[in-house]
Amino acid sequence: MIKHLINGRQVESASTIANLNPANNEVICQIAAGGEAEVAQAVAAAKEAFPKWAGLPASQRAKLLRKVGDLINQHVDEIAKLESLDTGQSYWRTKKMLVPRAADNFYFFADTCCHVDGETYPTNDHLNYTLYQPVGVVGLISPWNVPFMTATWKTAPCLAFGNTAVLKMSELSPLSADRLGQLILEAGIPAGVFNIVHGYGSAVGEALVKHPDVRGVSFTGSTATGNRIIQSGGLKKYSMELGGKSPNIIFDDCDFERAVDAAIVAVYGNNGESCTNGTRILVQDGLYDRFVAALAERTRKVVVGDPLDEATNVGPMITRDHWKKVTSYIELGISEGARVVAGGLGTPEGLAPHLKNGNFVRPTVLADVDNSWRVAQEEIFGPVACVIRFKDEAEALKIANATSYGLASYVWTENGARAIRMAEGIEAGLVFVNSQNVRDLRQPFGGIKGSGTGREGGHYSYEAFLEVKNVCVSK
Ligand code: NAD
């Protein structure tokens, strides 16, 4: 049973949710399903813990956060296994990249919090100076797709800057965050500073964002839920990291092999269940047929299978419902007029017998897509690429921006001036030029339009987790 963590103690609820393994749909465990009462207890604990935690010198908080990073690094294998079991994502990738990165989140923000300073604005008569102060109790809400990394990406800066937290994980993937709660206590962070309440979004999530003592909300999830949260929570401090339908723009003059390699990663990475994936692939006329053929050939080699197997590239979709959603988009694409050049409906070939009840889909390339179609406009959040043809730079930009989203974007060209023009013109929070999605923790991460508001990363995380106060002193 996965229990809540409230004021340093494990707490149960009367109701529970069955947590299923996406690879076979067998029950892994039960999760406590909290509600208003559990949220109220957790917020009260966080509120009580706040003054003492915020009052510690940053260097002391940093020391405790580094200890959390060390403990994560000592349990990489265990955490990666839990995450893979819970989400169906590659154990190997999680182990090599995502769990170490989660530890880095703690090391990085331990350093960052020791360098928070302010500005001064002197005038003839006055001295203005700024103070950065913690927000108070912050609600952290995470989706299911990269739960451990996301939980630590929020928790580390939140606690580093002196806030206390109530974390709500997705009801579909609570296991690794449960472990995080234990490690945070083991590191010596006082009870009440970090709390977790599990359960449904409509119960725990709503109660958390509506709670008057929750002064800020850092949310990662879908655009629909993000909008709902702002409506329910009213005036608070929000950071909203939402959905995406990112363009991957391939010009005739690109480095072909690198662009194909990167497109494969940008569509199928993380089972296709990633907000920044470049699933709208825009390809220029002169290269279109060759690119589609190469993409199709490489897609057929993408290995679908057991997420614990090192050879697996794409594991199962998180739930049967999500499997139905992804499958229905493949059907929709076909009915809208797309040409299926790889994958399609049906069970992936060569699936081992123990996976026959899992939520597996075939990595799929839909070619000759029109950007106005629903498959090109809506977030599928699975291993499905839509390939769209364009003539010239102006048309590429027009298509890239004809979306309600604005999270990531990718441009492949050997023409430097064009790359700079495209980077300026694309409506997105992140532009990668001749590059896959790589993250430096100092970068501002976030989107515009339907992909969110606010940025997190480096000093940009001040926006989410600190309030700035101006002090004006008369001379
Ligand atoms: P979701 O919006 O359904 O749920 C996200 C979280 O919000 C869950 O913990 C859920 O229980 C909770 N929730 C649901 N309803 C709520 C409510 N009314 N009030 C408060 N909380 C509520 O998203 P999901 O399906 O878990 O995740 C996939 C989505 O997340 C995709 O759209 C993806 O693009 C997005 N995402 C964005 C980023 C980013 O950094 N921009 C990163 C990862 C995922």
Automatic annotation (TrEMBL):
GO terms for molecular function: 5-carboxymethyl-2-hydroxymuconic-semialdehyde dehydrogenase activity; aldehyde dehydrogenase [NAD(P)+] activity. Pfam families: Aldedh (PF00171). SUPFAM superfamilies: ALDH-like. Keywords: NAD, Oxidoreductase. Coiled coil: none annotated. Gene3D superfamilies: Aldehyde Dehydrogenase, Chain A, domain 1, Aldehyde Dehydrogenase, Chain A, domain 2. GO terms for biological process: 4-hydroxyphenylacetate catabolic process. The active site is at residue 241. NCBIfam families: HpaE. Belongs to the aldehyde dehydrogenase family. This is NAD-dependent aldehyde dehydrogenase. It comes from Paramagnetospirillum magneticum (strain ATCC 700264 / AMB-1) (Magnetospirillum magneticum).
